[in-house]
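Changelog note: in this version the structure field was regenerated for every chain. One regenerated record is shown below for reference.
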Amino acid sequence: TDVNAPPEAPPEEESSMELPERPTAASPWKQVPFYRQQEHMDCGAACLRMVARYYGHELDYPSLMKLAGVSRYGTSLLDLSRTGEQLGFITTGVQADWELLRSVDLPAIAHLQDRHHFVVVWRVTRKGV
């Protein structure tokens, strides 16, 4: 062994932020997991974590918040969309009316503009969301 050689780097651990493949549709009967937001302004990251877990991917929450650009002001819909795409999801930001909302793949993340809040939509019926 060469005592002057630099030490070998430890084997890299698999990052919990890397998804092995693009998420695929899950069963419509599978329940969306619930994760409570940890801070006042991290609702977007919490929603993305729930949707990712629904598709079988557990994400490191502090890293997810950093990736989504969560600050004391929250995160933007654009940043949340970009983060979802980095994780392998196909994202589209739209202003949805009732009919459009009934036709999108669920679960989906919705931004409630009047409340400055993100929520996960997991079911749409005639009576409500």
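Spot check on this record: The chain is about 25% helix and 10% strand. The first helix runs from residue 43 to 54.
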